[in-house]
Amino acid sequence: MYEKDAAITGWINGWAGLSPAADNLMIWISTIGVPLMVLAVAVQWWLPRRDLPTRHVLVASGLTFLIGLGINQLVLLFIQRARPYEAHVSRLIIEPTADFSFPSDHATASFAIAAAFLLLGQRGRGAAFLAAAIIISFSRVYLGTHYVSDIIGGAATAVMAALLVRAAYRENTALDRFVTGIL
Question: Using CA atoms, how far apart are residues 61 and 154, in angstroms rounded to an integer?
Fold first, then answer.
């Protein structure tokens, strides 16, 4: 399994360094992608169309984001996987990071937003966020900082968090009416 993961990771990362324009684009996507997704969710809170189902999805996506990243921190306590560049699987073209590789925080954060929107019926926005999550995650492998399996693990964590939020945070409950009524 590791051999296939390393081979696919190495193949994707093998494109890094061949085009300065592509490298800069991937660095930009990796740097700004998740913050732009968070901003896209936050801005929707203040759009003129302020229906309660949309507000519920916005809150749920924020909860999914936070729970997913929280789960990641727990996983990192037990799975301390070295980054692919440390194992000489990839060539890093950005600054190294001090934390472990599995699961990818970028993948978890971006897929959490997409999963929340998709699981709660916002298919159009969810599909757009899913496309962004895939691109952001690809950039992390391209740059040499993650294995493909780190991305899959992050996406799985995000889906698990979204399912937990969907089960626990129900629309039209007293808590939901309170939270969605703020501002």
Answer: 15
Rounded Cα distance, 114 and 136, in Å: 12
Task: Give the count of alpha carbons within 13 A of 13, CB side only.
Answer: 24
Residue 177 identity? R
* 170 Rama sector, left if φ>0, alpha if ψ -120 to 50, beta otherwise: beta
Say what the pTM is. Answer: 0.90
pLDDT digits (tens, 9 = 90+) for 23-50: 999 999 999 999 999 999 999 888 876 6
Q: At what angle do helices 123-142 and 148-168 cross, to 10 degrees?
A: 150
Q: Helices 105-119 and 20-45 meet at what angle, rounded to 10?
A: 40
**How far, in whole angstroms, is CA 176 from its chain's centroid?**
24
Query: Domains in the chain, please, with CATH?
Result: 2-92+99-180 (1.20.144.10)
CA distances from 125 to 2, 81, 109, 128, 145 (A): 34, 33, 16, 5, 28
